[in-house]
């Protein structure tokens, strides 16, 4: 059987769980979380990368074989996002970039328009661009058109752990997009990651739910298992939902025989 | 670290996924499903056990090291359930028994009263009794009192694949019962099994969703992974849900530095 | 067109909203709430009825033309419920009785078994018995059999305002019961009362959500409107749910004409 | 007490239920639906307005005192929407316009970008512009900025009757927008309209669910009642949701007194 690989920007991945580096009590746990989650892509806010001292640099906890996905958090416009992306590449962080353009400070919702602009510019410059977005079919199609390597609709506002609150809109993206759909933000429990994968999402990005768990290492593995379970269920074909009961065991005649 | 084992009636189990034998297109697939799901307990309707011919006997597909959980499907009263249980034991099927007493032929809902009666009689006779029930705290406590080894509340009517529709009532059972709570019936997708485990259920029993999947072997493994993910998340401690967004990456000041 | 009346124990009612007397900051508001809600049946805990002083007696706030539905709250067994019911009738509170038998002090869940017992005794004594119950089809049928005038399944534990959390089980009762199904407990918002009626419930009982509202008089009317809306929708026939969009306005050709 | 009026573009309305003219089996029923729903604003697709024959003209069923809300359905771009709007005004249909710009023919989702463009142009020309949109806070703020009189986020794709599937996103709009938020599309039952109003929506637009009901006149009144109920509940203040039960009646000591 052919392996079920996720292809982003020409790179083939075994893992469909992307993780983040924010909010850990102690960043030293990150290598163990990478290991337990078997994630191959990790996002890191450029702001946290200290290029002058090695002391508190988040980078020292990230193994060399991970694909770095620097993100542009802090950017309020396309232009700012573009500048951060270029800085990241110049600093040797590779050519993957997660676009986050956020001007709303309360709900931290992405600005889809600015995100399209930044995606277009950066894709042309050879970046593998993964834009974080409010789920909106027209925007997703536009992002694909201007060169996004995937689209990353939010399930719920960042860090809320509220789950797949935009499920109906994400399902439409899954149905219509040609590029991978990666659910990003809002996923608070493994069951929610599993559900996203059952719906047909290509991958999920989970940060807060792992980083703030009682035991992030255990939770990293839990998400790995949940993502694999959801993917397998999707590929295998989930059975139909019925209204009336359907016996799994025969119900009649046993004692009358 | 101590292993996280499930104790039912004094027997310690690694797996928290119980499976069934009903509804497979071809029973010959059962050994592979047992293997992929790593389940250690399998339920089988007594009615399907043919003691005279070996031809179509479901038993030939069940490895010797599985714990058999014969069920009393077809019973409409406590008395009938008791007779079936005794037959099962006499036929060498061991002393585990899943009580199903169902008089309603449309929704296949269990009769909690008759179930208590049958549980009491069979527990006194040395059976390890797992009663299938409508989720009801008073009934669950009574079942524990009369000797049930676990309680098996339904998530939704049998075979509907509708998921955890009685979640609030099951959560109360999880909160208040001393014996294991095993969610039985209704679970249609791995994400739903995962959710049940995250809530603190001790195990789940899944039949229809595996047996009728496009690929039951793959689906068996998917449920195994989902159950493990949910259990790990429960043990690790799931993070809190918030209303407003909480940044996982720093949002301010990057470009102004 | 024939009027759409609710028949309980031979009494025909225009209103399908039953209300309660508990938890008001000031009981003096009760007449206005009765008026705004247009309810015709009001439940009152026998414990709150002071037969010796008229001072703080809840009864003085209830107009003579309301149907009193004394309840047996405080009863932990069928026997206690029966005694309370008889006291209520002896005290001139009529022959309607709402059975509440609750031994669990945390979730305040009814004991269905004791409730059946009390219902049987009191129905034989000529009471119009409305039993509060955990939603369970077998129990509902038994209650009908022993003489209940209606069944009152809980939507969620008393006072939680959590809504119709047992929807699937209540739908089965609606489908199968011959006597009126009155959703009692858990309804926290008019939309939830409306939803219960759309599903086909015959009535709802609302107490906490009205009594603890910012403005109980306004909320009483809101529930009246919501219940009427849900009932009308049920009678009119709710339209079907579709997965793909269906235009309400023509989508093509306008400008090309 | 001051009346609770809805102000759109300087016009004060008593009714918070906007209705539509599409999908009725027989348009002759429209006057009765207007009457039963007490709606004051009705949307009509320009395409359906026949300016040459009076025969099948939808306009003849709309009373003079209704506010006409012509919509631009059929428009695939801002430019087309603008042309339709101008035609509507030129034809004497007033200066209210509902912008619908839809290029996706499967889910009929609005194109938020084109909608902003059309809104800006038409607001400058003196129209009272009500844009139909995918719920997105950044877009809603932009629409307000360029002159929208209200924003009309979808609850679910048009005509699906699926309800408030974008609830979390709509709540954010309600929280942050200064102009009225009118939930448009997807509302299939009165309970869903009621829920939207409880959340704080300023109004709802319902077409399919009324037009395709078994009895559209009865359903029109049901929606009126549900909208009023939800509005009243919102104004009155809905009570809090609790996890554990809270007795509405006293639970102890009755018989021990």
Automatic annotation (TrEMBL), chains A, B, C, D:
Binding-site residues for 1-deoxy-D-xylulose 5-phosphate, renumbered to this chain: 159, 185-186, 207-208
This protein's UniProt keywords: Cytoplasm, Schiff base, Thiamine biosynthesis, Transferase
Coiled coil (residue ranges): none
GO biological process, any: thiamine diphosphate biosynthetic process
Record field: catalytic activity: [ThiS sulfur-carrier protein]-C-terminal-Gly-aminoethanethioate + 2-iminoacetate + 1-deoxy-D-xylulose 5-phosphate = [ThiS sulfur-carrier protein]-C-terminal Gly-Gly + 2-[(2R,5Z)-2-carboxy-4-methylthiazol-5(2H)-ylidene]ethyl phosphate + 2 H2O + H(+)
CDD domains, alphabetized: ThiG
Annotated InterPro entries: Aldolase_TIM (IPR013785), Thiazole_synthase_ThiG (IPR033983), ThiG (IPR008867)
Class in the EC hierarchy, top level: transferase
Cellular component terms (Gene Ontology): cytoplasm
Entry keyword annotation includes Cytoplasm: yes
Family per similarity comment: Belongs to the ThiG family.
Subunit structure: Homotetramer. Forms heterodimers with either ThiH or ThiS.
Name this polypeptide is given: Thiazole synthase
Species annotation: Anaerobacillus arseniciselenatis
Phylogenetic placement of the source organism: Bacteria, Bacillati, Bacillota, Bacilli, Bacillales
């Amino acid at each position: 059987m052919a392996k079920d690989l996720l292809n982003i920007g020409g790179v083939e991945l075994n893992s469909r769980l992307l993780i983040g580096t924010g909010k850990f009590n102690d960043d030293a746990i990150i290598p163990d979380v990478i290991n337990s989650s078997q994630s191959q892509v990790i996002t890191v806010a450029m702001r946290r990368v200290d290029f002058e001292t090695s002391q508190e640099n988040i980078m020292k906890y990230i193994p060399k074989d991970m694909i770095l996905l620097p993100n542009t958090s802090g950017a309020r416009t396309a232009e700012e996002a573009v500048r951060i992306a270029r800085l990241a590449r110049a600093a040797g962080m590779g050519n993957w970039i997660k676009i986050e353009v956020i001007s709303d400070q309360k709900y931290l919702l992405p600005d889809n328009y600015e995100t399209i602009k930044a995606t277009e510019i950066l894709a042309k410059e050879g970046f593998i661009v993964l834009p974080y977005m409010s789920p909106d079919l027209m925007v997703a199609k536009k992002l694909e058109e201007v060169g996004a390597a995937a689209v990353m609709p939010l399930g719920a506002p960042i860090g809320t752990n509220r789950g797949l609150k935009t499920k109906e809109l994400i399902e439409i993206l899954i149905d219509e997009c040609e590029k991978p759909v990666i659910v990003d933000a809002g996923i608070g429990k493994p069951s929610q990651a599993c559900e996203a994968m059952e719906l047909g999402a290509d991958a999920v990005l989970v940060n807060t739910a792992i980083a703030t768990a009682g035991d992030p290492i255990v939770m990293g593995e839990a998400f790995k298992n949940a993502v694999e379970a959801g993917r397998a269920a999707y590929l295998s074909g989930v059975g139909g939902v019925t209204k009336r009961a359907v016996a799994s065991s025969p119900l009649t005649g046993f004692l009358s025989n």
